[in-house]
Design goal:
- The protein is mainly beta.
- The chain has a single domain, classed as Folate-binding superfamily (Folate-binding fold, 2-Layer Sandwich).
- The chain contains 1 helix and 6 strands.
- It has a 4-stranded antiparallel beta sheet, with no helix packed on it.
- The longest helix has 9 residues, at 34-42.
- The chain is globular, with a radius of gyration of 14 Å.
């Protein structure tokens, strides 16, 4: 079981959240090529190890959260609101 410590609701089981994928910077829509846009939408790093991810707390505070997680051990290093600076 993966437990995510929501900054607003406290420790919660991961089944209360929706995984939205790796955090990445969205390219400028007007300045990107179709190939670059396709790469942003469909190609993910899926790296083993430390990963920055975006989650949504569906069954709780209904906020978007940035989670730093090790994909090998499922150890969560930090959880914060989207846009909040890492500690």
């Amino acid at each position: 079981m993966l437990v995510i410590v929501c900054p607003h609701c406290g420790p919660r089981n991961s089944n209360e959240f929706t995984f939205l994928g790796e955090r990445s910077t969205r390219p400028a829509v007007a300045a990107t090529t179709p190939a670059e846009w396709r790469h942003y939408l469909y190609f993910k790093n899926n790296a083993a190890g430390e990963e920055d991810e975006r989650w949504f707390h569906v069954s709780g505070c209904r906020r978007f959260l940035d989670v730093e997680r090790d994909t090998l051990t499922n150890e969560i290093r930090s959880v914060r609101d989207v846009g909040e600076a890492a500690r």
